[in-house]
Amino acid sequence: MPRRYDLLALDLDGTLLDARSEVSPRNAAAVAAARAAGLRVVICTGRGLVECRHILQRIDQRDPVVVAGGSIIADPVSSRTIHRFGVDLALVAHAVERLVAHDHPALVLKDPCEAGYDYLVVDGPSRLPLDPVTLWWFDAMNVRVRFARSLDDDEHPEHTVRVGACGRAGAMASIRADLAAACEGRACVHHFPAVVAPEHASRAGGETLHVLELFDIGATKWSAVSRLMAGWGIEPARVAAIGDEINDESMIRGAGLGVAMGNAVPIVREHAARTTLPNTQDGVAHAIDQILSGAW
Questions:
Q1: Residue ranges of the domains in the chain?
Q2: How far apart are CA 226 and CA 237, in angstroms?
Q3: What is the spatial distance between Cα 285 and Cα 292, in angstroms, rounded to a whole number?
Q4: pTM
């Protein structure tokens, strides 16, 4: 039977990756089967390119990838940036100022092809310490980091694609409300659990750690996928998307077939046409099986 979809947009954490942040053999085989059936597979992740390179190699990713929450489209083979959604400099300055005022170092993500490194950490005059999860993550992922007391030391302000922080859930919710109110209509701000962390560092004082992120208002996973679709002549109705978190909502809503993971947050489930199994039970493989069989 003719296939219904030409593109599969696929999240990583909480979706393709299992509880150990690995791609199971069944999920890897399903991704290969989707490609063999003629679908373009586009990975769409909140991670930067360097932070997911080992995963992309595991599934032999050749098509462009959407990284940094939708703010960069990159070529996984050459590491070249195909397109980026930069953040307005005034918004960057405001976000950094508010984060430091709340005693959180600001994680200023760069377009690495232009800046030559991944993150500028603005830690303020008092050199605010990074949390254990961020320190572990930077080391484990071989992330290139530079430190600065203020944005005045930023040599590449025009190459910023995201401003973020990691901290206790309650504090991140409060800061998110602060930033969202000040940047309404000009930026996209959200926060969610830091799902990838060693057990000893995943909680602080009994409270879950969350990631806070601010992007340009036009930088979403669906915005980036839409640019690729336009270049390939693919209509939204011919796209299937699978995800679990708040930053997947745009592509779950925009795709012809939006699939929520069994472990997805409520807003993703609300907008999904279908729900698959959780990431701990190879939910991506189950969804791809249903798509390729024509059941979905």
A1: 7-84+220-293, 89-216
A2: 12
A3: 10
A4: 0.93
